[in-house]
Each structure stands twice: as structure tokens, then as C-alpha cells.
Amino acid sequence: MAAIEEEVLASQAAKPFKMNLKPMAVGLVILSIIFFTARWYQQWAAWEYGLDATNPDFDTYWMSVFWAQIIIEPIIFVALVGYLWLTRDKHLNNLTPRLELERLMLWLSCLVVYGFAFYFAGSIFAEGDASWHQTVVRDTSFTPSHIFVFYLCMPVYIIIGFSLFTYAITRIPFFAEKISIPLILVVCGPFMLLPTVGYNEWGHAFWLMEEYFTVPLHWGFVFFGWSIIALGGLLLQVMGYLVELLGKVTDEQGKLIK
Asked: What is the pTM of this model?
């Protein structure tokens, strides 16, 4: 039996390593569908049904979307993070270098999906939000632009970010053995944009001001948005770890698998 197991392990080690990009591709496609559909919906329903929060049509076309997001997104968050935690690897010390490399490369590919989600939140929808309020002027905290940037885009990248964080500390020894400050900044910094929304809306309720991103009320968005720069430090950490890991992944002849 032991001989058979050794044979299987040897045959697996002899196979050339291939990076699995399917999860990344699927994630990018799903996010593209979600965000482009949201942008189309904005273009279609914002001017027609989103200018007056007291109009019954606003409840039909916008508040219904808001409540759907508020209900569905926490469920997805708990399901994903909970699943990753409950199925965590409790024997990371026995992890083979090859499997460790596969997990790391899968995690890195999904990090691209996280960056993609953050890009949409911080650029297209955030800039669209500023443009909307400069043009229309807000009459409520729940505007057509807010409903998507604050309650769709931000929760989406938060869900992905915390899922990646949980995967890293439960399945990759490098992150399980010690705390990675860049990883914490990359995940928790952008997350703090969501609590900043509460302060932002409180400020706008009491201070009438033009919708400029440069006003002090918006500095929190800038500060926490810049935390994504820690991604550079995280990649430097991972590159050193990757080089070390590649040196351990060899085939039965002692050659590096390419």
C-alpha cells in the first residue's frame, strides 16, 4: 500500500505544473456582468425614476434594489467566509510544496478579481456619483448613484477581500504562520470606506456643500482608498515567498518543474 502511495505521489510530482486560471476568469466575467448591468440600469432608470425620492416609482425602481442588496450581500459574505473557515486546512504542516504552490497561485489569480472589483468602485461608480450630485443635487442619502457605489460595489469587493484573507490564513502557511501587515491593509483599508459612508451622509445632512471630492468630509474616502497601495508591498512579500517555494517544487529527477 505504501509503495502504491509513493508511486502516485511520484507521478503527480512528474506532471508539469499548470496554473488554474478558471476561477479568475469566471470571477472577472461575473463581476463584469454585475457592474455593466448596474451601469445600464442607472442609465435607464436614474433620470426617469430616480430624481424624486418621494415618488412611488423611486421605491419601485430604486429602493427595491437597495433592499435586495442589503439582504443578499450579507448572506453571501457569511456563506463564503464561513465556508472557507469551516473547511480550513488543520494540517498545514503536512502540506506538500506542490500543493502549497497551487494554492498560492490560485490565491494570486483571485487577487486580480479583487483589484478589478475595487477599480469599478473607486473609479467608474465613484466618479459617476460625484457627477450625479453636482448635476442633480441630492434630496436623500439613497440616490441612484449611492445605491450602486455604496451598497453594491463596496460590499462586492469587501466580500471578495475577506474571502481572500480567510483563504490565505487557513490554507497558505506563509500567511497562517505570521501576520502580513500589507495583506491586512489591502483588505481592511478599503473595507473602512463603507463605515466612512455613514460619516459622509451625516455630514451632508448637516452641512450644505458643493459635491467636490476635495472637501474635508471626503478625506476619509481618499485615505482609505489609498490603502490599496499596500498591494505593492503584498506582492513583494509574495514574490519572495514564491521564489522560495519554487525551489522546493521538484520532480523525481530533482529538476525544477516549469
From this structure: 0.85
